[in-house]
Amino acid sequence: MRMPLFRRPKRWLALVTGLALASILLTACGENSPSILDPAGPIARSESGVFWTILIIAAVVFVGVEGMLIYSTIRFRARPDSPTPPQTHGNTTVEVIWTVIPAIVLLIVLGVTIRGIFDVSTKPEGKTIEVTAYGHQWWWEFYYPEYKMTTADSLVIPPNTNVHVKLYSNNVIHSFWVPQLTGKTDVIPGHDNEKWFSSDKADMTYEGICAEYCGTQHANMRFNVVVTKDNNAYLSWAQKQQQAAAVPAPGSLEAKGQEIFKNQCTTCHGIVGVSDETPYLKDPNPMGQCDDPTKENGCLIGPNLTHFGSRDLIAGGVLKNNIEACQPGGDLSNCNLAKWISNPQGVKPGNDMAVNVSNEDLPALIAYLESLK
Ligand code: CUA
User: Fold this and answer.
1) Is 268 helix (H, G, I), strand (E, B) or coil?
2) Pocket of ligand 1 (CB under 6 A)
3) Could you tell me the distance, in angstroms and rounded to a whole number, from the CA of residue 321 to the centre of ligand 1?
4) Using an 8 Å Cβ cutoff, are 337 and 314 in contact?
5) What number of other Cβ atoms are within 10 A of residue 109's Cβ?
6) Of 51, 175, 244, 292, which one has the greatest count of Cβ atoms within 10 A?
7) Quick one: which H or E segment has residue 79?
8) Phi-psi region for residue 90, left (φ > 0), alpha (ψ -120 to 50) or beta?
């Protein structure tokens, strides 16, 4: 007697194939997964245009060729007593046709690709803001030369404005990628790369990714591109970022936190108005040599924290800065900043952060950092 499992192999085959295909389709359906097929700016639209053009041409060629193949295999299959079919070898007309058609198809693909290359590498017309993106291991730092300020994890930009990004690394090769706004560009030590992109949607947040393997936490080297609701909102954000850090009230929990910061964190982090290091009031070395505190360029190992409380991500995008769970005097068990400071190597193994803040000091330090709006 046959085992029931094998009774209908065809049905099983269909089921397994169906599930496999469904899993591929559904993988792309995550609400937050950024997709190049959902472009939000002219550069990304040009890039997805190249993709769609090539996909459609390839699909037509595939269906045409496979269709003819299947048709011929069935229609002209050998039957008993069938004669030898007519031989077409050396037929000039046929040879010319199947040389010319692929050549035309490839020329169209070439044309579309070259146009796309010009689209992404030509300086666009119109208003432009300047940003320098530094790839660290493993987080992104963004320097705004017009405002002499740095931020981390979030690149804030105005809508409908060209963003000119210079890409620097002094460590390993990273790759800057915001799937919905711009394709990948490598961030190479000692090699100046740059790019332009813009968002034509306002009041949006897009996910950015490091797209070049750069060490153990490569997958956790994320950032957000935050598009403000208009240009004024961008300017007021920039103005706020230029100011020195908020000063805590004397005797408050935050004031105690500031003392802990001064004692424990200033080797790697700067807060303008608090620690001596004022990284974002000087131009970082143009080669991006900002990682070594012994260098004279004033740059620090860790992110500038002057306006930490206004950021939406921490730890290179591994955690959300969930301020609502980090209220002073409240329960910190769900506070991501508490998780990060109390066990950085557990959250992101291999990163440079080495702190030893006692459980007693932690609430004050968190209250202080989150108050830095
Ligand atoms: Cu940086 Cu991968």
Assistant:
1) coil
2) 135, 138, 174, 210, 212-214, 218, 221
3) 21
4) yes
5) 15
6) 175
7) none
8) left
CA–centroid distance, 223 to ligand 1, in Å, is: 11
Atom of ligand 1 nearest to the CA of 135: 1
Q: Which residues contact 264 (CB under 8 A, 6 or more apart)?
A: 355, 356, 357, 365
Quickly tell me which residue has 């460590």 as its tokens. 171
Question: Which run of H or of E encompasses 172?
Answer: none
CB 366 within 8 A of CB 336: no
pLDDT at 70: 97
Ligand 1 mean position, distance from CA 352 (Å): 15
pLDDT tens digits, one per residue of 143-191? 888 888 888 899 999 999 999 999 988 789 999 999 999 999 999 988 8
Residue 141 alpha carbon to ligand 1 centre in Å:
13
Query: Whose C-alpha lies nearest to ligand 1, atom 1?
Result: 174
pLDDT band at 354 (very low <50, low <70, confident <90, very high): confident
